[in-house]
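Handover notes (outgoing to incoming on-call)

Open items:
1. FAS1 domain-containing protein: sequence verified, structure written out, both below. Nothing else pending on this one.
2. Nothing else urgent.
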Amino acid sequence: MAKQAVSSLSILLVVLFHCITTSAQPAAAPTKPADSPALPANPPAKPASPPAPQPALPPVQPAAKAPAPAQPALVPVQTGATDVTKILGKAHGYSVFVRLLKSTGVAKQLFGQLNNSNNGFTIFAPTDSAFSNLKAGTINSLSDLQKTQLLQFHILNTVVTLSNFQTLSNPVPTEAGDASAFPMNITTAGNQVNISTGLVNATLGNTLYSDNQLVIYQVTKVLLPLDIFNPKPKKAKAAAAAAALAPVVAPTSSKPKPTKEDAPVSPSAATKVDAAAAVSLTRHGMLESIGVAVVAFFVIKRT
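FAS1 domain-containing protein structure tokens:
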């Protein structure tokens, strides 16, 4: 009896659990009719809208190269009259050279030739530090002519580009005058240009200005010409030195040979000359008297 009760209770619990579980699940949806048309899996796709315009990206810049050695920028080409002093003034660091160009009148000469002719020039411009490295009083001790020649020694009367220096013939003529008195030798070694004056050895620096009529280069030394700072002895001094070195020769006295005209006349000879002259005059007077008497005789006879 007890077993039956336990079995019945177990069955009851199973049925109760089944009922609870079944009631908790949702009711199944009604089955759609088989003949209903199948809906498309996806709605028709709308036409793709054009992409919005994007701002153009700047071109990619190539990687920057290693910076080259600093070079002073070239002074822009002059649109008006070419003025060397203005060009150097914009370059900065050449105030002494500019002042000398103006005070000597060389700047005015350059201005006239650059703007009124087809003449070309190459100028070697010393920096202010180059002048400060000279001995005190070097420039002030020069005469006006020597200052002018010093500046003209820094000017070539032709345009010489960097690639043409190797074509020059030494000594190179300058505006200062004769190349033998103002020698300048220019040599090249690769991209380096060397200038020698016999007193100064300098290296050509940066290009400060360049066009088809004018080129200006920087030099870090003042180019000192030999004729001004180490002049050759004058001819008179050389002749005096040669005379001093010559052996002294004792002068020899030579008497000129007497001529007949210079021979002294003795007193006896002078007396003979006077006597002969007197006889000659006496004879001449007698002949005149005889001639007059004969003429008078014939005149009287005819009458």
